[in-house]
Amino acid sequence: MIIMIKKKTFTKNQLEKMTAEEVIDKLQHENYSLLATLGAENLRKEMVNVGRACNIAVNYFFRTTGPITDAKKHNKAARKKLVRVLSKITPGSYAGMPKDCENGLVIGFNHPSLGEIARILVMKIDIMGDKPMYFPVNLPWYEALMPNYERIKRLGIILTPTITPSTWQKMNLPMDSWQYEQGKRLKKEFRDVYTELSHDAVKNGGVIFVAPSATRQETVFKNKEEYDGEEEIVPTMSLLAVRLYKDPKMKCDFLPMAVLPPEDFSRGLNFRKKYQLIPGKIMTESYIRKKYFKNKNVKKLDGFDHEFHQRIANELPKRFWY
Q1: How far apart are CA 282 and CA 152, in angstroms?
Q2: 120, 94 Cβ separation under 8 angstroms
Q3: CATH number (domain holding residue 164)
Q4: Which residue, 322, 315, 285, is CA-closest to 109?
């Protein structure tokens, strides 16, 4: 039986004085809700049942494996069981994905549904083991999963919150309110925290997964204008590359990964239907530095996002291009 404890909220005075890192710590360990604080309780409530199901699943994998007295063996056993069970419920093929990378790795993928997230987690745990994996998670999802943050971390999955453009729009905060100002500040600071964590992760050989669209989108490019290069793409991948390669010692490659969903897929998890996770042509650190970093103070990578998206599209049927 799960007892749902009511979420705590920050006061105006508290929130104005707190850094993004301090807010995140409260969300992780003290049952606070930023969504409820900012007046977006409806978005939090939408995720309660989903979060409950995910938390039950995580607890199951740990409680039904052993030896409990040996944390390392216990974590490994839980990961193996998770892969075995989820491979049947949310099957996926990931032949050709790199297993042992000397460099850190950023994997960017098209995001047609929720289904690929489960398949990506299985793939990561199966072939990359306990290698640290950082995953930016939309704030409603993040808050829903926080009761099991530490156990999810033991699986090698480190979640960090983000407020996507679509969620920001749904929050619909009054522009003259303190909630709007603090939400806007934290939206930016969450992104800054994520880029810092990404730097630390890939520097230590970790893996970063990113959906460049930041929202579910059936096609790789939003429209034909993006595909033709006539409309600017949200610079998710290039901003991350700029931040990472500011470090001259950074060894990190970028891998475009194409998600091919099953026939007649929906926006949901598509249980029992098989996805294909297809690695595209990798963009190595040396290639990116040589092509896109013409000087030491580069702030923008013209064309990088388009090339990255194009490499994803190249692995998919044309109906998924735009």
Answers
A1: 28
A2: no
A3: 3.40.1130
A4: 315
